Amino acid sequence: MTRRRFLQWAMTLVLSPRLGRAWAAGCRSDDRLAVVPAGPFWMGSDAKERAYAYRIGGEAARRDRWFDAELRRQRLTVESYAIDRYLVTNEDYQRFIRQTGHRAPFISDEEYRRQGYLVHPYEKVRPYLWRDRRHPEGRGLHPVVLVSLGDALAYARWRGEQEDRRYRLPTEAEWEKTARGTEGRYFPWGNRWRPEYANAEYRVGGTTEVGSYPQGVSPYGCFDMAGNVFEWTSSEFADGKAVIKGGGSWDDQPGICRAAARHGRVKEARHILLGFRCVCEMDAASVR
To answer: Fewer beta carbons below 10 Å: N end or C end of the chain?
Structure first.
C-alpha cells in the first residue's frame, strides 16, 4: 500500500468507525471495503433538491429537465453489505484479464459511433484504449472505463473466486445509501456543492487516480462517489436499460453529481465516462 493510500485508509477508519467494529465481530473485511449496516435511509429527491440541482446543473439540464425523472424522496431499508471504497482500477482489471483471457477495455471508432452517446469525439477516447492487453501508461490507479455491464459482472465473479467471497454490482439503493448516508445528503459531504471535493466540471479534463479527493469521502468512507466516472449498478429501468449512478463524471456539471441523480444505458455500452465498483455480500450478523 502506498503512503497516500495508507493515509486515506487511516482517515476513513476515523470517519467510519463501524468498520473497526465489524473487524471485532469477525467480518471478513479489509481496507478495500466499507461496511454499510442494515437500516433505513432517504433515497431520491424532493422538489427543493431538484430546484437546487437545476440552479447549479447547467443550461442543458434546465432545458431538457434532466432531474424530473428522479425517484421521489422516500424512506427505504436495505440489508447490510460491504462495498468497495475505491472504484475498480486499471491495475485491478488488468490482473483479471491476464488470468482469464477476458477482453480488454477497447472500442473502435466505428463501434463508438454506432453506439451513440457521442458526448466526446473519438479522439478523446484514444487515451483510454488498451494496447496489447495493457492499460494506458500512467493510468494504473485510474478507474477502469470502456467496460460493459457484462464485463463488470465477469470481473465481480472472478474476484469472488479469487477471494472465496460473493461479489456483485451494487443495486441502485445500495449505491445511493453508500454515497449519501442515512440523512439524504445531496452530495457525499453535505447539501452544498464544493468543487474542490470532486473531479467534475471538466476542471481536470479526464479521469484521476481513485481516492484523489479525500475531502469528498462518503459517510461510509468511500471515494469518488461524486465525479470521476459514472458507475454501473445491477438495477434496471422498465425498458431494460441499466441504471447508472456515480454522482456524475469528470465532465459533468454539479447538478448531476448528486447521489439521487440517475440515468440509463444499454447494458452493452462502453464509454470513457463509465466504470464500476463491487459489493461483497455478507452475513448481517457480522456487523452488529
So the answer is: N
